[in-house]
Amino acid sequence: MKWLLLALALFGFTASAADISGTWKGSAETPNGTVERTFVFKVDGNKLTGETTSNMFGKSVIEDGKIEGDNISFSITVKVQDNEGKANYKGKVDGNRIKFTVDVPAFGTTIEYTVERVS
């Protein structure tokens, strides 16, 4: 009986994670101009993986991705000229839209980003 309750509790926890699998696109204003970014998210339970591509920074792999209810977080590594830095994304899913706050400590900036589901 304990195993059944544990299994039901785990199922309930993973079932409550937002289903953001698929392609999302958006843009943000930065000190260097407008950054357009496409995300391809893959969800496995509360683990988030995938990749992202931008017009300024090219392709990056999603690292340390987590989904807790409607809250998501992950990091990517961006390269500007010869400098690399982590961009730490925290977002809230609202239907087919995600609002992100992106902290980039290496470059001393924070960016607000909104993306929408494409597929």
Largest sheet: 8 strands, antiparallel, barrel
Given the C-alpha coordinates, what overall shape results?
A: globular
Q: Strand order within the widest sheet?
A: 1-2-3-5-6-7-8-9
Unreliable segments of 5+ consecutive residues: 3-15
Would you tell me the structural class of the helices and strands? Answer: mainly beta
Per CATH, which architecture?
Beta Barrel
Q: What percent of residues are in strands?
A: over 45%
The number of strands is 9
Q: How many angstroms does the end-to-end distance come to?
A: 41 Å
Under CATH, the topology can be stated as Lipocalin
**Radius of gyration, taken over Cα atoms and rounded to an integer in Å:** 16 Å
What fraction, in percent, of the residue positions are helical?
Answer: 10-25%
Q: H/E element string? A: HEEEEEEEEE
Key features of this structure:
single chain; 119 residues; mainly beta; Lipocalin; eight-stranded antiparallel beta barrel; 1 helix; 9 strands; 12% helix; 66% strand; globular; disordered N terminus
Structure description:
The chain is mainly β. The chain has one domain: Lipocalin, CATH 2.40.128.20. Helices cover about 10% and strands about 65% of the residues. The protein has one helix and nine strands, in the order αβββββββββ. Strand 1 and strand 2 (about 35-45) form a beta hairpin. The longest helix is centred in the N-terminal third of the chain and has 14 residues, at about 1-15. It is globular.
SSE layout and pairings?
Layout: H1 2-15, E1 22-30, E2 33-44, E3 47-54, E4 58-61, E5 63-68, E6 71-80, E7 83-94, E8 97-104, E9 109-117
Antiparallel strand pairs: 1-2, 1-9, 2-3, 3-4, 3-5, 5-6, 6-7, 7-8, 8-9
